[in-house]
User: Which sequence fits this backbone?
């Protein structure tokens, strides 16, 4: 996924009220940017760090920019939580993930029972529901999810188990928008219920695919699948 407009460079002043961030542009102007990430953003917040913003298309929007990425330890970390859905949808549509190739019909935002899933894919043999989560938290060499308690995330796992029980394919994709990790695990210390449910989902046949993304100011692309350890 390439950015359609050139991103705007600045430095993070502070993040506040979850969805807002003050950024000082290179010109010295301080602007308010929309932060799509509702989590704690643990391990990817550093005041004074370089950031990139995308200009808003809607002139009526209250904030002129969306916060896209931050540079920590010399590497860019994607913080826009809407990007992973686009990455996975395009990758499945264009047959770019071998494990999710071969689907003729690919849609976004499809409902099953009481949950709406990010991607639905089908062919003459099977239906597949895919849920996508953004991962930005790092602990050592591990990328971990979630960075805050997520009742909604737990609900998605429970519904994916029912998808599998109904004879369809159920896939949980974690898009890791940072390059300084090489294994995925759940953050049981932050949300033990989510961690337990993820292990249960795996045992029920829900597939887990942690995908690392390469984040640059020019664009964000899925790189490859990471190993995972749910017991660490």
Assistant:
């Amino acid at each position: 996924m390439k950015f359609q407009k050139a991103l705007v460079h600045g430095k993070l002043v502070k993040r506040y009220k979850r969805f807002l961030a003050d950024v000082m542009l290179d010109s010295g102007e301080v602007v308010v940017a929309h932060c799509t990430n509702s989590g704690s953003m643990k391990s990817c917040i550093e005041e004074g760090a370089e950031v990139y913003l995308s200009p808003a298309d809607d002139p009526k929007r209250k904030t002129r920019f969306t916060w896209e990425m931050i540079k920590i330890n010399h590497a860019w970390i994607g913080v826009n939580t809407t990007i992973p859905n686009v990455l996975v949808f395009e990758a499945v549509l264009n047959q770019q993930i071998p494990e999710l190739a071969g689907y003729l019909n690919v849609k976004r935002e499809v409902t099953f029972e009481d949950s709406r899933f990010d991607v639905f894919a089908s062919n003459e043999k099977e239906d597949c529901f895919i849920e996508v989560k953004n991962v930005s938290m790092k602990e050592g060499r591990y990328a971990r999810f979630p960075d805050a308690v997520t009742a909604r995330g737990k609900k998605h796992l429970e519904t994916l188990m029912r998808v599998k029980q109904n004879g369809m394919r159920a896939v949980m994709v974690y898009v890791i928008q940072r390059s300084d990790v090489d294994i995925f695990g759940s953050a049981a210390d932050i949300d033990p219920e989510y961690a337990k449910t993820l292990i249960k989902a795996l045992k029920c046949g829900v597939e887990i695919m942690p995908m690392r993304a390469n984040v640059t100011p020019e664009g964000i692309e899925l790189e490859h699948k990471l190993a995972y350890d749910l017991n660490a």
Notes: The longest strand covers residues 8-16. Residues 151-165 form the longest helix (15 residues). The helical segments are 83-93, 151-165, 192-203. The chain has a mean pLDDT of 95.
